[in-house]
Write a structure and sequence with these properties.
The complex is a heterodimer. By secondary structure, chain A is an alpha/beta fold. Chain A has helices at 4-10, 41-50, 105-108, 124-131, 167-176, 187-192, 223-233, and strands at residues 32-34, 36-37, 56-59, 62-66, 85-87, 94-95, 112-118, 144-146, 155-159, 182-186, 214-216, 243-244. The longest helix of chain B has 29 residues, at 270-298. Bound molecules: iron/sulfur cluster.
Chain lengths: 254, 540
Amino acid sequence: MANWVLKGLLSGIKSSDYPRAGDDAPGVSPGRPVGTRLNSTTAAEQLVARCPTAAIARADGGVAVDHGRCVHCFRCRRDVAEPAEWQQGFEWGAYAGEPALRKLAKIFGRSLHVRFVDAGACGACMSEARQINNPYYNMHRLGIFTTPTPRNADVLLVAGPVSDAMRLPLRKTYEALPTPKRVVAIGACAASGGIFGPSFAAAAGAAGIIPVDVVVPGCPPPPLAILHGLLLAVERKPPSALMSPPPQRTTEPA
Amino acid sequence: MAVLERIADNTAGSASFAELCRSLWADKAVATEDKAARLCRLECGVNTLPDVCQWLTRDLDFIFATLIVEQTARPGWSLTYVFYKDAASPWVHVAVQLDAGVSALPSLVGLAHGPSFDWHERETEDLFGLKFEGHPRLGEFVLHEDWPEGVNPMRRDFDARARFVPRARDPRWEPPTVVVDPGAFTMPVGPVFSDFAESAHFLLETVGEDVIRTIPRFFYKYRGVEKIAEGQPADRALLLAERFSGIAAFAHGLAFCQAVEAICGVAPPPRARALRTALAELERLRSHAAAITGICNSTALAVATSQAALIEESLLRLSCEATGHRYLFGAVVPGGIACDPAEPNCRHLVAAVEEIAEGLRNLLRMLRYSSSFLDRLEGVGVVADGYARSYGLVGPIARACGVARDIRKLFPYAAYSAVDFSVPVEQEGDGYARLRVLFREAEQSVAIIHDVLSSLPQGPVRLDQIRPRAGAALAAVEAPLGAAFHWLRLDQDGKVARYRVTPPSFTNWHGFHIAAENFAFQDFPIILASFGLSNAECDR
Ligand code: SF4
């Protein structure tokens, strides 16, 4: 008989330090492009032309990035005159609209139940969502659990552009959640339709179908970004922004 | 008998195969060959089609790969049935033309290996509006019941940007009666079910304790990838190829790039081919680790699940270190590879995957001694002998029931012809056989990564410029879940005129119902996990 208990104990504790501290282990996040100051306008135009999803736009002194549209294709980083700046980290969760007065932390307390809906996701978002259950990220230590029924859920986690056939199931699942409830949309597809929507077969993201509170951009967002989005939904972490303008020029020292 | 003997002598090379076709089908079909592409093309009339396909599948044991439907410039349709067999046989493309007014042709589901044509015909009927006479179950396949009749999105005149085709639900609509056994009823599962399950729907027909049969329903995730790719420049469509199934992004991206390269008549440099091989195996390793995690999880073996999940996460991090992306997005480009790992990175990768191989060996050793685990997998979800062939099943699922077919050996691409590896096969066709195939293939992947990266050729990793050309090509790769076929046609501006993808999950989901018959309710998640298929990949 295999001794699984011993095996488990011998593996030791693997959990990430996040959210108590940061986590910069290699490979936990692909990072992402952010607003960049550029020296030349042609370089800025090149980046705008390279970006396949119109996530990059000209802005004062450089380019701005719309994280909700970025699909991590690296084309603004490789083989260009001036690459977009790439930022490590993963605290990407942002409020989808104007954050209402929430004060939900009390209501949800320290335990949060999540129902996941796949609305046409490619599998990578789903895989990353599944990873928050693995021993490295271990959502249970943060009081986050998945639940098989929407009736017991506080948060609806949705991925995918919302394919045509998933509109109705998504809306029904949303309606089945008791109030108060929060919706966290993960991935570029759920944020903006990504490279699929809007089209005859898919919508332009979850917000067109149900009210969305928090968006976690990324293609796919890494597990820690998804955790950040969940913590943000219950105000246990501050938000990031969906738009990233180029940094303001600081006055040069004389 | 003489014919069969001649066949036996003649399947050896594509040259003689075309001659054989000529001698047998002289007045009924025109055979041409393309030696460079190892391809024999047989053009015939609609009435001869069933005979030719019967001959290929029943007499010669060819396997049906995919059906490519194209709307031709001269009003009408061109249908190409693609077959393949083994390392000694060519691709066989059986092509028929339909005139504009004709929208029906004979169904092939009644032939030997008929089931392998089934889903392709249903899909074509839904998306193109072509009818297959004699097919027992047409309609409501990719497009569900509330999609308007007669609107066929793959036709040229359908606008892909049209938002949400307006429709009214017919209040009288009811699901078709499917219950066969007396006293049985159906229990619906899905499309939203379980913790992190992909959207799919299963009707489990049961008399109370056991499930008699499973009627699956897919395409909840249909995103119309083949349609929205049309008119896009190749480098934009590459994003679709990578992202329609994010967990096999590299394999599908690679197939797409190989098709572009075949059309433009270029070959990537040796270093790129070697790196492609290494990254494809890294993806397979990660995908197999994920499947193993899923199987352990389905049997509620918590520590084993954690151990496998740790391995999976390590592989995701390694992929990120090697290419910048945890799922290898953006790594493959037409003409080569977008990132060139330095020597120390390659050494680090080799050392890390070898450690992972050791972890997998330990895990398997412990699983083998966990009788409670084995009890739940052995004899569960059996794909009976013969079905793998008649359904044309691919990948680890086919290899777990004795079919040693692997595109890496049959039609070597990247650097596979230069590496030494074996294709593991098991015979039982049950969940345990599939698990063992996964472990054994993972072992092979580690060996391939080691081989390729320790003798990496020097030089560039991508071609400078590729001049777009008009043309069409079929590319095949062995994706982690099995054979994937990508057919691409580019116009003279390098824009996509037609993109046809037949992913392994499409082929293998079709066979799922065979494994999901007469089982106990609690085994359902185990059967699902041991198939380990992706709906994103199947639905596209
Ligand atoms: S990585 Fe994002 S911002 Fe950069 S080109 Fe690709 S989609 Fe655009």
